[in-house]
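User: I'll paste a sequence; please echo it back and then give the predicted structure.

Assistant: Echoing your sequence first, then the prediction.
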Amino acid sequence: MEQKDLTLYKFMILYLVNKVDFPLSNSQISEFFLEKGYTTYFKLQQAFHELEDDNMLQSKTIRNASHYSLTEEGQEAINMFESMISEPIKEDILDFLSTKEYELRNEANIEADYFPAKLDEYTVRLRIKEKNSTLLELNMNVTSREQAIHICDHWNDTHSKVYEMLVNELLFS
């Protein structure tokens, strides 16, 4: 792979992350690149690693998935070099974001993770966020890893019912 191709992929990643106000996961960004046929998964991962090494992207790991946001250096770089991305590529990125924004935002705002607490217990951390505010954070201990995984796997489907039930119970009981 030529260095200029890798540089373009890095600018595209920065541009994509810059166009939303929430972190994007590796798989969300990869979906765009692979769906459009811009590059291979392995070349894309190289671009991610170099952007992190160069302190252009910062990542947060949630349930083994990296979620990326721009650093100050990344913001400066995309502001200076956005013109290196062709208009058709920018249009592809903006089309992808407009088509998938609700889905992408929802994935970023609903978090579920778990970690070992003490012998034979796991803490499950569930969150509902809206932009930079936390609407709900719930931490609970369970007695097995399987229970923790099950709760995390179902949080995306049940978060709104749980939130509504808690608000109703706390306000109207």
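The two ends are 63 Å apart (CA to CA). The longest strand covers residues 121-130.
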